[in-house]
Specification:
By secondary structure, this protein is an alpha/beta fold. It contains 15 helices and 16 strands. The strands form two sheets. Strands 7, 8, 9, 10, 11, 12, 13, 14, 15 and 16 form a ten-stranded mixed sheet that branches. A hairpin with a 5-residue loop joins strand 9 and strand 10. It is elongated and about 75 Å long. The model has no long low-confidence stretch (mean pLDDT 95). Bound molecules: L-homoserine. The site of L-homoserine (HSE) has 11 residues, from helix 7.
């Protein structure tokens, strides 16, 4: 029998215990032995909880117990979670986590430590919630050159954007609902300003390049500037708006990585990924496009991915088999040089000036249809990021909204 400890008895922690309990028979069959929760570390007590007798407050009991070979770190944050993870790995105990912030920030060090100690640091649940994307990228593209990974990696923002699109919902109300459903991060900024998706993009980019990718070097923009009028323009043009993480390996081998709202055609494979679902599109040179779809947030989907890692660790005691990356930083491309189309919304009286500044011809301008409130939306010709930004600065307040087009 394998004994595990769970660090943190919050949403994901209680999900881990529930998955281990409810799917006991399948887990036993797949792991080759029973997996049992011996300790649950939390600051709180849980009187009346069926597992209250496993709740402890002293981390050292876990560290000093040789029966514990696998630890689930589902506390979140980068303070105690980092220290506990490090101590577990140093003691040769494998750690399975959903903590994307910690993986993105200290993954390189923790992966190296796990390799040194012949145990594993696994983080399937850190990207795409329950979607098995990490293991697939690691194990199933071994005959491929991955060229790009494009993902809807944040369930909360996808939920908000979907509600805004289909129900014309108010942004604040949709965010509140996502929080009530247990999708959101503790601080809403982490979701809505794109930081959570950025951490996940850093993890995927590191996996693809085999090198560390700093979140600070990934250009990140959130969804708080997306307005109902933008959805109106998108709908009128057979498009939708999604918060995408776009990680591409360019011809020169450099990594271009960005998180931002994108307007994309209704035919794009990610366009139909709605609600709290996540989608990850992997483009590789022999296979072409493959897409992974599933629940990107929530208690049981996330816990399921953590437990799948636990099973992997139990099956591979004493061996390092985890996905990961080495030391050294990935070489990043200059985003400013990237070329693309942009959608722009302006006030009616400024439309002509703005459209001309972006190079639309008179005929194109004449064909534009007015949005509600007398505003106009249009799509620019292909431009470099830096040139687009320059034009926006010149035009100032005239630009009410701007969104990249995929
Ligand atoms: N807040 C995250 C999301 C949770 O909404 O996707 C899962 O990482």
């Amino acid at each position: 029998m394998a004994n595990v400890a769970v660090l943190g008895y919050g949403t994901v922690g209680s999900g881990v215990v529930e998955v281990l309990e409810r799917n006991k028979a399948e887990i036993r069959k797949n792991a080759g032995e029973e997996i049992s929760v011996k300790y649950i570390l939390d600051l709180r007590d849980f009187p009346g909880d069926p597992f209250e007798d496993r709740v402890i407050h002293d981390f050292n009991r876990i560290l000093e117990d040789d029966e514990i070979q696998v630890v689930c770190e589902v506390m979140g944050g980068v303070g105690a979670a980092y220290q506990f993870t490090k101590q577990c790995l140093m003691a040769g105990k494998s750690v399975c986590t959903s903590n994307k912030e910690l993986v993105a920030r200290h993954g390189t060090e923790l992966l190296a430590l796990a390799r040194e100690k012949c145990c594993n640091y696994m983080f399937e649940a850190s990207v795409g919630g329950g979607i098995p994307i990490i293991r697939n990228i690691h194990n199933s593209y071994t005959a491929e050159q991955i060229r790009a990974v494009t993902g809807i990696l944040n369930g909360t923002t996808n939920y908000i954007l979907s509600k805004m699109e289909t129900e014309h919902a108010d942004y604040t109300e949709a965010l509140k609902q996502a929080q009530e459903l247990g999708y959101a991060e503790r601080s809403p900024e982490a979701d809505v300003e794109g930081h959570d998706a950025c951490r996940k993009a850093a993890i995927l980019s590191a996996l693809v390049t085999g090198r560390e990718v700093d979140t600070e070097r990934i250009y990140t923009e959130g969804i708080s500037g997306v307005k109902p009028a933008d959805f109106e323009f998108a709908a009128g043009n057979g498009m939708t708006i999604k918060l995408l993480a776009v990680c591409r390996i360019l011809e020169d081998g450099k990594l271009s990585a960005m998180v931002a709202p994108f307007m994309l055609s209704g035919n794009h494979p990610l366009a139909s990924v709605g609600d709290v679902f996540n989608g990850v599109l992997v483009s590789s040179n022999m296979l072409g496009d493959t897409m992974f779809y599933g629940r990107g947030a929530g208690k049981l989907p996330t816990a399921s991915a953590v437990v799948a890692d636990v099973v992997d660790c139990v099956q591979n005691r004493g061996r390092s088999v985890m996905a990961g990356w080495g030391c050294g930083k990935a070489e990043m491309a200059d985003i400013e040089e990237c070329e693309r189309l942009f959608y722009v919304r302006t006030a009616a009286n400024a439309f002509g000036t703005a459209a001309k500044a972006f190079g639309l011809n008179a005929e194109h301008i004449a064909r534009q249809e007015c949005l509600r409130d007398g505003e106009y939306g249009f799509i620019t010709p292909v431009m470099k990021e830096k040139d687009f930004r320059g034009k926006c600065l010149e035009l100032g307040d005239v630009i009410l909204s701007r969104i990249r087009v995929m």
